[in-house]
Every structure is written in structure tokens, then in C-alpha cells.
Amino acid sequence: MKTYKAVPRKAMLTSALLAVLAGPAWAQDTTRDGAASSSEGLDPATLDTVQVTGIRGSLTSSMNLKRDSQGVVDGIVAEDIGKFPDTNLAESLQRISGVSIDRTSSGEGSKVTVRGIGPDFNLVLLNGRQMPASNLGNGGGGLSGSRSFDFANIASESISAVEVFKTTRADNPTGGIGATINVKTLRPLESAPVVSVGLKAVSDTSNDNLPRTLQGSKYTGEMSGIFSDTYADGRFGVMLSGSYQERDSGFNQATVAEGWATLKGNDTTDWRALPQPGQGYSDRIQNRPGADDVYGRPQNTAYNVNGVQRQRTNGQATLQWKPVDNVTTTLDYTYVENKVQQQRSELSVWFNYGPGDSTWTNGPVAAPIIYSEDMVNSDVSMGGAQLATKNTLDSLGFNVEWEVNDALTLNFDAHHSTGESKPDSPYGSAGVLGVAAFVRGKTTVDYSGDLPIINIALPPGGVQAADALVTGSVFQNSYNKSEVEQYQGRGTFKFADYSALDFGVGYTDVKNRSASAIMQRNTWGGLGTPADYDDSIWYADDMAKYFDAFSGHNDPRLTGQFLVFDFDRLINRAAQVGTASDPACPTCYVAPTEYSQDIRTNEKSKSAFLQYRTTFDWSMPLNVAVGVRYEQTDVDSTAMVRVPNGISWSSANELNIDYASESGFISDSGKYDYVLPNLDLKLDISDTLALRGSYSRSLGRAGWDQIQSGQSLADIVRTQGGSGSRGNPALEPLLSDNFDLSLEWYYGESSYASVGFFRKNIKNFISNTIVRENTGNLHTPVGGAYWNAALAAGGCGVSDMPCIRDYIFTNFNGQPGVTATGTNSAGQLTGTIVGQPGDPVAGFDITLPANQRSDHLDGWEIAVQHLFGQSGFGLAANYTKVKSGLTFDNLSLGDQYPMVGLSDSANLVAFYDKNSWQIRAAYNWRDKFLNGIGGQGPNPNYTDDYGQLDLNISYAVSDQLSLSLEAINLTDETMRTYARHTNMLRYATQTGPRYMFGVRYKF
Fold first, then answer.
1. Greatest CA separation found in the chain?
2. Cα torsion at 395, 517, 389, 600 (round to 10°)?
3. Are 126 and 183 within 8 A, CB to CB?
4. 575-593: string of b/e by CB count within 10 Å (b at 16+)?
5. Which of 23, 635, 986, 994 could form a disulfide with 204 if both were Cys (CB 3.0 to 4.6 A apart)?
6. What is the reported pTM?
7. Is-contact 920 908, C-beta < 8 A?
8. Alpha carbon distances (Å) from 226 to 82, 195, 317, 333, 875
9. Is the dihedral of CA 686, 690, 693, 698 positive or negative?
10. Taking phi first (over 0 means left), then psi (-120 to 50 degrees means alpha), and beta for anything else, what does residue 301 get?
11. Pair type for strands 384-403 and 327-350
């Protein structure tokens, strides 16, 4: 009868040995040197020399990884050296049961969710080492607190395997509640010599669906190469790999980017509320939301088109040396660079929550079907943006593995890795230039379809270049750097009865810095006049044709005419425009060089673990692993924050915070420690049938923004107040008790079926809560003396902000806080109105992280893999069902604590692999999920269910030469995100299919 014996885990002894045993990266065998182990009973020496090729070989190796692992482990193995199943690692990982991915706006896989746990709580390792994760905020601006790793930065050509540890073990580093994901690269002493070169031509059809000035190249290229060989009778090995990829793509979006003002039907106090029956313009409202219904009014609606260019460079060098048979040293260096440029043009309309016609869906969540507001000479906004960022990752590691004798193995590993995200343009990480023509009349939007239909009452001829001028602008300089310095020592002592004791200690020092600065010119009422801008700067285009994947794009009601402009030329011109009261400002159109926010957080963790593994050789062998890990973490955070000192009303719809010239620093700290036990059981019912059970306790650390010190306020303030955020370094991490039970049937050489149940009881769940606060010294002109005088004079409604501004400028210009500067093209007075002592103190919705409550998450995973004999045909399918109490209640307007990313998912892969042909069709589906909270208060953002079909065909011309054809998003699917109702759109995104033709040659 087949039995599974304990296999040694590489590790280290005591700190006294560390200096002697200095050495690089985790060994690359399928049994692991630390966090990458997956085998219980296979011979590592045998596995080191096994080479699998093709789809069938990859699936067979993945099945064996699952079968022979301790706990629940899934993975993907390269089909051949230099050939991973997908060009993008995230898109490969989504084929695994329980794994789903987040995509970039241009449709590429980026971050992973495992068993409903979002990207921030999945730990990513490279050869067993914790990797830094650097990210910028949304749209390249602001501060990012994310710990999530972006797989779009890593090329797949040098990857040999990816392991997904769904259950926690004592010898795993901490931080992954959903999973610990270990990316393994090629090791020269553990693989056959190879020299391989690959070329690809890429055609992304989304690039063709853009205005001409936003398009990149129709065809772009990729190149990659791997060299691996051994010398000195196999005692010295060298591996070099590199890849370079260019991709030009695009995406087009319909958005309600500023979100929805969400109210109760009986609300009579909020100025944004619909009038009650019998009041105001209530006779123009059809099917008005009921008193107990929740409804939402949009702040804005827009179409935008985006051209994206990317250049990705990856390189890795690995040196291995075996000075004697029982010692292996490894020195490796990895470098990743991903440069992204994006240019956007848009057509948007803003609403003031004023009078208009509307028709509503039935409750209890009521959303507009048709929504309109009356406008006179309002702005048709046609702004543009340029984003340019550079992400880098470099990692230098040294590992030594010493097989002291037949019983004792020691391992020491040290590495220093840095991830950095920063601007890559004079305009900073994100530059936004407002443009408008003040010719907009009544504005109506139909929200009933997948694509909102915007209709604008315009003068004859529509929007003309002669009407356009620059308004406000925002240039952001955002920066994030994460450094990881990690030392891990571990060892394994094997007993004569095939039992083993794993032991180890570790130290991890993580430094994270997030910084940002904003240069904002608040000329939102218009900079100069249209006559200040040459008509040749603009050219007319039509938005409708760029949304042809959505029904409704050809609706005759759709007003799609907008102006595209030369971003550089218009900025140069805007820098020259000014008046006596508002002089030209060339420095307003470049990114600031000094940060106004700078948050530096240091996390130091010490750990130690013990794990005992044995096999009870009963009639049904039982494999047991029981362990415990101790983890202690100290957190220190220092933040530089801007000091606000006033509020200025600079345009009809927006007020802005003024800041003191000097910033202040705030520091705070926190500390926690936990004991984390684990128990893994595997009962071999027969040679083909195995029953697994696991228990473990794991922790997930809070986001960097959640444990920051200091408070920041959003620059823009609305009439109802502003928003801001602050963190808490003393937050406890999430603590999860995890239970797994699964049954696995391996009924064929490469065929199996499995069903598993999992449950996670999560404590200290961290969620943002919103607290209404005031700063005590920020006075707003809304509701102040000048405001009230305008209302008392009659003629201005409470929501008619242009009318109120004009009255104040006309009657109080020159008095404290009131400075009129001129008249815009719509005939509205321009200038600033600053809040004065005695005016109301502005309220701010401050977002705070808190350890809120406990809840659970449970689910089922079902997987089948079947090969149809020697026909070459096969299929793999899986389905994951996840359920939790951590969901969002759409009927509640208060604070909630939902779990982001929770969703069901499914995969179906059909393939043919025989002789020279390999064909794979893969369909991935993810159900609707909550992707975050935001958009005017605690509103949910749901991403609708999404399915995508990909196709890969390769043909081996000879043993050396192979050709391939790949198609991504073959059926041209679109993505959609909405709030409490499907009519409450947030984002509707169109990309397009992507095609790649490749040639690979092995010497």
C-alpha cells in the first residue's frame, strides 16, 4: 500500500549559526525550503530533474502538487521552460478554484482575491520571500494604503510555478488570510540546460477604438529570453532571463464618478433631497420614491476615452554553487520595471440637485430611469488628463542550504527588496486640465440601460471650438516606496520513524512611505475668455462611436459631440492667460516638487515556529502536521500633513480648502503579538482517495493608510461639507480561525475530482466608518451672512449657487472675504468668497478605520480535471460558492462593515494536447461582488458579474521551434460597476479583444 512519509523542510538552527550559514533564495524543489513547500512524500531529488511540457504535463504537475501537499494547496506549473499558461500571472491564477482577479481599466489581470478575501489580505512571496507592494492612489493621485501585489508588473516567462497555500501553516510567513501565494522562478542546478528566445506581436483592438490623438501603435512587440546552464560537473549554475513588452491599448468609460447623493424618501432637511409631494417641482416627478424608500441623485455623468501605453521590463540573474555535496548556496537578483502612460478626454455634465423632470423605479431602493435638471448657460465639461507612472521592483537575496547529516537540514535566507511607484512625467503622476463651453441648457440622462444616455440642450451647431476655454486644473505628484528586509532561519530534524520536526525563527522589517502633493488652480468658472484660445487647439469628435459594445450607443438622443485637444499645447497656452486680479501662472501647470503629505510607517516583526509531522501507518495511513507560530509586531508611523486655515468659494459648484504654507508632523505607534496554531490531517482512504482536514489561525495586517498617523482633508468642499480621513497605528490585525475539510479522488493518471468546504471565523474585522466632525476653525460661506443676505433678497433658490454668488459679488465685493475678478463666458461673475468668523463651521465626513466586529465566511470548492485517455482531449472545471454575513445592506444609510471582494466564481478549460498541437479554450466567470465603498458617503460599489473567453493555440514546428496564437477577451465583454441599484451607474467600461502571435526557439 502506498504511504506518504514526512519529507524534511529546509530550515535553520539558532541565531548563532546565521552568520555562518549566510546564503540566498529558497530552493526550487517541489518540496520547499520554507514557505514554498508542497510535497509530503515525493523525493526532492527526483522532482528536481523532472521536466514537464505541454498543457497535459502542466495540469498533471499541478494535480500532483495538490495531491502530495500538506494542507490545501493548489498551483500552476509552467508548460515548458519559458512558457507559462498565460502571459499574465493573475490571469493564470484565476483558473484555480477559489481564485478570482481584479482587472485594470484596460482589462488586464492585476490583483487576486482568494476565497472571498481581497488582495490586501493575500500574502505574495517570490521564492518564499515576502515581496514589497507599492501602489499609487486611484487615477495615479493621492495616497495609497494598499498592501496588494500587482501581478501585472511581472512577466511570466521566467516563472516555473505558482503555489497557492489556502491553509495556513506554522512555517508560512504571516499576512495571508485568504492565501499565501508563492511565485517560483527557475533555478539552474534544478533544471536542464536551456537557451530559449521568444518573440510576440500584439494587436490590442481597444487601441483602434480611440480618437486619433490618443491612439498608440496598431502592433506592438514582446521579446524574452532564458539562458540556464551548469558548470564544474554540476556544482555551479547560472540562469539569466529577461523580457521586454510594449502594449498600446485603450478603454472607454461611462461614469458617475462623483457618486450618488443617497437619501430617504421622507428626508426634508437635506438640501439635495427631492421636494415632498405638493412642494416645489414635485409635479414634475413621476413615481416619486416613497417615504421609506432609499433613493439616489447623481452628482455628475460623463463619457471618457483613454489611450494607454505600457512598457514592461523584467530581468533575473541566479547563481548557484555547491562547494560540497551537502551545501547549496544561491545568489539571485530580480528587477521589474513597468511604465504606464495614459491620456484621457471626456464629456461630462454636472448637476446641482435643482429643479427638473425625473422618473423613478419602484422601491425599496429607487433609482432614476430618467433624470434631468434645468440649466441656463451651464458648462459642458470636456476636460482631459495625462497620467504617467513608473513602478519598479528589485530584490537581492542570498540563501544557503546545509544538509548537516541524514537527520538534520538547516537553511538560512536573507533578502532586501524594494518596490517603488512614482511619477514619470513633468505633469506628475496625474495631471487634469478642465475645459468647458458654457452653452449647456436642460440636461437629461436615461439611466435605464447598460450605457447612460446623456442628452444636452445646446445652441444651434452644438459645442464649438469658439466657445471653449480652460477652467480649473489639478496636477498631482504621488509617491509610494515599500522596502522589505527579511531574515529567515529554519531547520528540519528527521526521526527514524519518518517523523520530522520543523523549527525556525525570522525577522522582517517593512518600511512603507506614501507621499503626495497637489498643484491646483481653482479657476473653475473659466480662465480668461474663449477668445484667449486659438480654435485650432481643438477638434470635434463624437463619443457615441467609442461605445459600440454597449446597446444604446446609437440612440438618437445621445449628445456625443465633444472637443479633443492637444494637452501640451493647451497647457502652454493656459499658463499664459491671466487678468490683473488673477495673473498668468506658469507654475500652476506642473507637478509640485515638495510633498504636502508624507506618511512613513515602519513595521518590525519577529517570529518563531515549531511544527511536528508524522505518519501513522495504519490500514488507512494518517499524515499529521501540528505546529505553532509566535508573531510579534511593532508599528511606528510619522505623518506630515497640511494644516487647513480657510475655505474659499471659487466656482459655482465647488468650495476649496486653503492651507497654511507650512506643514506639521504627527507620530504614533502600536504593538501586537499572537500565537498562531495549526493542525493538518490527511487520511489516505485508498491509493486514490484522500480525506483532508485542517485548522489554523492566521492574521491579516491593516492597510498602510489605516495605520497611519495624521489626518488629511479632501481639497474640494461641497455645500453640505467636506470629507477627509485619518488612521490609527494601534489597530489590531484581522484574526481568522480557519477550518477546511475536503475529499479528493485521483482516479486517473492526470484526472481527479475534489470537493471541499471551508470556513473562516474573522475577528477584529477592519472597516471604514464615517464620523461627522468639524475642525473648529474652518468657516464656510454656505449659510453665512453673505449667503443669507442673498436668499433674503429673493430671486435665488437655496440650490441656485450661481445666482447666490452673483448676488454676493454684486453687493459685497471688496468687503472681508469677497473678491470679484471678472465675468466668465456664461455671464457669471467670477472670483472668491472666503468664509469669515461668524459663518458656520464646516462639517467633514471623516473616514476612520476601526476593528468593528466579528463574522464568518464559508464556502464550497468543487473541481474536476479529466483527460480522455490518449486522445489528447481534456477538460478542467471548478466552481466556488462563498457566503458571509459581511455583506452590504442597501437599505441602510449608516455605517456598515462589509467584506470587499466576496463573490462566487467558476472556470471551464477545454484543451487538446497531442503531437505538435496544443489548443486551450478557457472561460472564466466571476459573480457580482462589492469592490469598495465610496461616492458621496457610505455607498456600495458593486462590480457586475463578468465572464471572459480566452483562446491559446500553439504548434511545434520542430523540437526547437514553436508558433503560438493567443486571443484574450475573444467575445469583447464589457464591465460595469454600480451603487445600490443597477441604474445607479458608477462605471461602464469597454475594452476589446487582444491578439498575440508568438515565435519561440530553443537552441
1. 97
2. 10
3. yes
4. bebbeeebeebeebbbbbe
5. 994
6. 0.82
7. no
8. 7, 6, 10, 15, 30
9. positive
10. beta
11. antiparallel
SS (H, E, C) 786-817: HHHHHHHCCCCCCCCHHHHHHHHHHHHCCCCC
Q: What is the residue type of 788?
A: N
- Residue 15, helix vs strand vs coil: helix
Closest CA to 50 of 67, 65, 40: 65
DSSP 78-91: -SBTTB-SSSBHHH
Q: Mean pLDDT, consecutive 10-residue segments, the chain of 1003 residues?
A: 33 31 33 38 35 77 90 84 71 85 82 87 92 81 81 82 91 90 91 91 95 94 94 94 94 94 94 92 95 96 95 95 96 94 94 95 96 94 93 95 95 96 90 94 96 95 92 92 96 91 96 91 89 93 95 94 93 90 88 87 96 93 95 93 87 85 84 95 95 95 86 83 86 94 93 95 82 84 93 87 92 93 83 93 87 88 94 94 90 84 92 93 93 87 94 94 94 95 96 95 92
Query: Distance between alpha carbon 328 and the CA centroid of its chain, in Å?
Result: 38
What residues pair up with 44 in beta bridges, in sequence order? none
Contacts (Cβ under 8 Å, ≥6 apart) of 366: 265, 287, 289, 290, 293, 294, 295, 360, 981
Run of H or E residues at 11: none
H/E segment holding residue 563: strand 561-565
| Cell, residue 603 | 513595521
Question: Considering only CA atoms, which of 748, 871, 872 is closest in space to residue 55?
Answer: 872
Which of these, 820, 790, 816, 813, lies nearest to 803 by C-alpha position? Answer: 790
Q: Which H or E run includes 44?
A: helix 44-49
Going from the C-alpha of 786 to that of each of 123, 352, 772, 833, 836, the distances in angstroms are 55, 20, 25, 9, 10
Q: Are 609 and 659 in contact (CB under 8 A)?
A: no
Q: Using CA atoms, how far apart are residues 968 and 820, in angstroms rounded to an integer?
A: 55
Query: Residue 159: exposed, middle, or buried by beta-carbon count in 10 A (0-12, 13-18, 19+)?
Result: buried
Name the strand (E) or helix (H) holding 55. Answer: helix 54-67
Contact assessment for residue 664 and residue 812, using Cβ atoms and an 8 Å cutoff: no
C-alpha cell at 289: 420614491
The C-alpha atoms of residue 717 and residue 715 are separated, in whole angstroms, by 7
d(CA 947, CA 922): 10
CA–CA distance, 437 with 468 (Å, rounded to integer): 5
Amino acid making up residue 175: G
- Rounded to a whole number of angstroms, the distance between the first and last alpha carbons of the chain is 43
478 close to 591: Cβ distance less than 8 angstroms? no
Q: Residue 323, Cβ neighbours under 10 Å: how many? A: 10
| Distance from chain centroid for Cα 132 | 15
928 contacts: CB under 8 Å, gap ≥ 6: 903, 942, 943, 944, 945
From CA 191, how far away is CA 51, in angstroms rounded?
8
Q: What are the grid coordinates assigned to 27, written together?
A: 530552493
- What b/e sequence results for 855-872 when a residue is b if at least 16 CB atoms lie within 10 Å of its CB, and e otherwise? bebbbbbebbbebeeeeb
Amino acid at 7: V
Handedness of CA 267, 273, 279, 285 (dihedral sign): negative
**Cβ atoms within 10 Å, residue 231:** 12
Q: Please report the pLDDT score of residue 148 as a whole number.
A: 86
Check: CB of residue 306 under 8 Å from CB of residue 251: yes
Among positive and negative, which fits the CA dihedral 721, 375, 544, 651?
negative
Dihedral angle of Cα 46, 49, 55, 60, to the nearest 10 degrees: 0
Eight-class DSSP state of 784: S
Please tell me whether residue 582 adopts helix, strand or coil conformation.
coil
Q: Residue 244 — φ and ψ, nearest 5°?
A: -140, 130
Burial of 995 (0-12, 13-18, 19+ CB in 10 A): middle
